[in-house]
Amino acid sequence: MSRLRSFVARRLLLGVAQTVAVVLLVFALTEALPGDAAVALAGDQPDPARIAAIREAMHLDRPAYERFADWATGLSHGDFGTSLTSGRPVGQYISAGFGPTLLLATLTVALLVPIGFGLGVLAARRVGRLTDRLISSVTLAVYAVPEFALGVLLVTVLALRLGWLPPTAVGYGTDLLGHPAALVLPVLVLLSRPVCSLSRLVRAGMIDALASPYVAQARRYGISGTRIRYGHALPNALAPAAQHLARTIDWLLCGVIVVEALYVIPGLGTVLLNAVAERDVPVVQGLAVVFGVLTVVLNLGADLVAHRLAPRAGVAA
Fold first, then answer.
1. Which of 73, 130, 222, 308 is deepest in the core (most CB within 10 A)?
2. DSSP label of 229
3. DSSP 123-148
4. Cα distance between residue 194 and residue 112, in whole Å
5. Taking every pair of C-alpha atoms in the chain, what is the biggest distance, in angstroms?
6. What pLDDT is stored for residue 134 in this prediction?
7. String of b and e for 201-232 (b: at least 16 CB within 10 Å)?
8. Residue 46 φ then ψ, to 5°
9. What is the pLDDT of residues 164-223, one digit of tens each?
């Protein structure tokens, strides 16, 4: 128990340091971009006097460290700040974009777990046979296809040529549950690579476990093959699979920019793209904090699961 507490404390301290580092890095990179929100608001042919007036009204003429200190102070009280371009609280942007992103992530994970584990277990049971070779070949080929290319291909074939599905979510707003057909293509693209990597991880973990001495001893004791596979071999494949699943959920919740941009879904990725284009520093920073905290929490949970299923692997991590 003391070792577990020490493990959790180290992970929490590391997570806090990582979150602070991400926030500082994002602020520094945003400051280094040419122009700012005042230039974006001034129009295509900005007048220097108008830019200066906007910058003064938005307090952009203050030193960067003062603006960062004010924002960090508000953040400690749960205030993400105010958008420079619209004057709305940053929390409203995050809450508005979180719904569609969470919906995509939930649907993807709900399909990813049974499909990924099912394919991995099936390949491990038929190792070296046609089924195993077919699953390994297809998953490797699909994993090699970039998400953007796969998304364009699915839109071209299933939406434009066959007309089975809408090509984008334009016109649906955030009410995506009311139009489930608009979710099919983005979920297929989001599933493609995680399913391949998860199934290969489960396959490799089960094959290693089935070749271990304790499994051979269990066979000598007359334990059934089903119990050996699912009671002994599969739990050993769960630790790396849980960590991979946490990384996948983190990737899904932190705004899948390519997929959301391709299918015009108003999620966190779209909010981030718009904020960067408008040089809206508080929105970018608020999203960075949310993404950093999600990453820390999900990876901590995955480490605890791995530590519980395979204590030596968890401590080593």
1. 308
2. I
3. HHHTTTSHHHHHHHHHHHHHHTS-HH
4. 7
5. 86
6. 92
7. bbbbbbbebbeeeebeebeeeeeeeeebbeeb
8. -75, 145
9. 888 888 777 667 777 788 888 999 999 988 999 888 888 888 888 777 777 777 777 777
pLDDT surpassing 80 at residue 36:
no
- Determine contact, residues 256/104, Cβ cutoff 8 Å: yes
Cα 299 to Cα 195, 222, 253: the distances in Å are 19, 39, 13
Per-residue pLDDT at 100? 87
Integer Cα distance of 96 and 11 in angstroms: 30
Evaluate if residue 243 carries a pLDDT over 80.
no
pLDDT in tens, 282-307: 788 888 888 878 887 787 777 777 66
Of the ranges 32-41, 148-157, 226-235, which is most confident?
Answer: 148-157
pLDDT at 240: 75
According to DSSP, the residues that pair with 82 across neighbouring strands are 89
**Beta partners for residue 143, in sequence order:** none
Q: Give yes or no for a contact between 259 and 186, defined as CB atoms under 8 angstroms apart.
A: yes
DSSP code per residue over 1-64: -HHHHHHHHHHHHHHHHHHHHHHHHHHHHHHHSSS-HHHHHH-SS--HHHHHHHHHHTTTTS-H
Report d(CA 191, CA 234) in Å as an integer.
22
Token pair belonging to 130: 């046609």
**Residue 135 structure tokens:** 């699953």
Residue 169 amino acid letter: A
Q: Please count the other Cβ atoms lying within 10 Å of the Cβ belonging to residue 111.
A: 16
